[in-house]
Amino acid sequence: MSLTPLNNIGEFALLERLAKLINIYNKDKVIKGIGDDAAVIKPDIDLVQVVTTDMLVENIHFDLSWMPLKHLGYKSIVVNVSDVVAMNAIPAHVTVTLAISNRFTLEAIDELYEGIRLACENYKIDIIGGDMVSSNQGLIISITAMGYINKENLVYRNGAKPNDLICVTGDLGTAYAGLLILQREKKTFMANPYYQPDLQNYEYVIEKQIKPEPRIDIINKLRELNILPTAMIDISDGLSSELHHICRQSNTGCRIYEDHIPIDMMVSNIADEFYISPITMALHGGEDYELLFTIPLNQYDLIKNIDDISVIGHITDANEGMYLINNIGEAIELKAQGWDSFKKEE
Amino acid sequence: MSLTPLNNIGEFALLERLAKLINIYNKDKVIKGIGDDAAVIKPDIDLVQVVTTDMLVENIHFDLSWMPLKHLGYKSIVVNVSDVVAMNAIPAHVTVTLAISNRFTLEAIDELYEGIRLACENYKIDIIGGDMVSSNQGLIISITAMGYINKENLVYRNGAKPNDLICVTGDLGTAYAGLLILQREKKTFMANPYYQPDLQNYEYVIEKQIKPEPRIDIINKLRELNILPTAMIDISDGLSSELHHICRQSNTGCRIYEDHIPIDMMVSNIADEFYISPITMALHGGEDYELLFTIPLNQYDLIKNIDDISVIGHITDANEGMYLINNIGEAIELKAQGWDSFKKEE
Question: What are the structural domains of chain A?
Answer without folding.
Answer: 6-153 (3.30.1330.10), 165-333 (3.90.650.10)
